Amino acid sequence: MRPLVFLLSSCLAFVPGLHADDNLKELGSVKIVVEDLNPGGREVGLTTDWLESVLLVALKRDLPRLRIGKDFLSFVYLNVHVMKEHTVGGRLQGCAAAVDLKVYRPAHILSDDLGSRVLFAVVTVWQKGDLLSGSCDSIGQQVKESVDKLVTRLAADYYRAN
Hints:
Layout: H1 2-12, E1 29-34, H2 39-43, H3 48-62, E2 67-68, E3 75-86, E4 92-110, E5 117-134, H4 139-161
Parallel strand pairs: 1-2, 1-3
Antiparallel strand pairs: 3-4, 4-5
Helix pairs in contact: 3-4
């Protein structure tokens, strides 16, 4: 399913006359979806509940008019993947994290000639991410700061569209 979503969202980015900001036009409500953490994320003390709280607070701070609930088709998706970095000798050197924030919305997929609707799907309409590294003790704070920064970038694009 994810390869199809990626393919469909990639196609939307290249529709003539469609600007990236337009993908957020009239977005009024979303649910929050946080991907389950990998073992590295759990080992450094991150939890999906904490990440959901960080994302909720950032969205409410930067996008106060956006309704957030459990029953909406559109959603903000957060994926955090943490990996411990080891030296060749096996000594722990630190941690690295990938933070990915996406917005998914329902969309009609048109035929190549734009003449008929082929498919209805929920597709990625906005995506930004960060790569982080540092001590394993500091990676949680870095993730929080990254989510805050990414939501601010989302808010800027949202306000440009609306």
